[in-house]
Each structure stands twice: as C-alpha cells, then as structure tokens.
Amino acid sequence: MHITDEQWKVVEQLPCDKDRGERGAKGGRPRREARDILDAVLWVLRTGAPWADLPGRFPPYQTCHRRFQQWSCDRTL
After folding, report:
1. pTM of the shown model
2. ∠ CA(35), CA(57), CA(42), 5° rounding?
3. For residue 55, which of 66, 44, 45, 46 has the smallest C-alpha distance?
4. In 11-39, which positions are buried (b, 16+ CB within 10 angstroms) versus exposed (e)?
5. Would you state the pLDDT for residue 45?
6. Which of 2, 26, 21, 18 is nearest to 76 (CA)?
7. Cα–Cα distances in Å, from 16 out to 12, 47, 75?
8. Which of 6, 17, 57, 68 is the most exposed place for a label (fewest CB within 10 A)?
9. Calpha distance 47→25 (Å, rounded)
10. Hey, which bits of 1-77 come out as E strands?
C-alpha cells in the first residue's frame, strides 16, 4: 500500500522538509523524497516489522528511521 496522490496532497502541506532543499544541511547526497520515506514509515507501523526488514522498494532503513525520529522530535508526526 502506498500513499495515494490525493492523500499526498494533504500530507505534503506539512513543514517536514521544506527548509532543507535538495541536500541535507551539510551537503552530501541528495535527500530522499519525503513521500518515499513516509511510505516506509507507514509500512513499518502497519506491519510491526523491525526497520531492518524494510523491503528493497523503500529507501535504506537507516534513512527512514532517522527521518522518522526527526519528524517525531520536531512534531511533524
């Protein structure tokens, strides 16, 4: 299950990544799309599986977990 375009129109209004641009604050690799990360977070929450068990269709689990922690801390989620 993935977020539909209609659902994403509502969610993308959240301020989760708008101030970070295409790269992280220190440069480096381009940031993964918030929509892909959110799909992965919802998969983990729905299945109850460990982060390391994310299927290959999602970004790396470390990236997803880190962004989930960030969104939790800044109260995006």
Report:
1. 0.76
2. 45
3. 44
4. eeeeebbeeeeeeeeeeeeebbebebbbb
5. 93
6. 18
7. 8, 24, 9
8. 6
9. 32
10. 23-24, 27-30
pLDDT of residue 57: 94
∠ CA 21-31-27, rounded to 5°: 70
**Are the CB atoms for 68 and 77 separated by under 8 Å?**
yes
Structure tokens at 23: 């790269």
Q: Which residues of 42-51 are buried (b: 16+ CB within 10 A; e: fewer)?
A: ebbeeeeeee
Amino acid at 31: R
The full set of domain ranges for the chain reads 30-77
Q: What is the pLDDT of residue 2?
A: 80
* Residue entry with tokens 């299950």: 1
What pairs with residue 40 in β-bridges? Answer: none
The full length of the chain comes to: 77
Calpha distance 44→61 (Å, rounded): 10
**Amino acid letter at 52?**
A
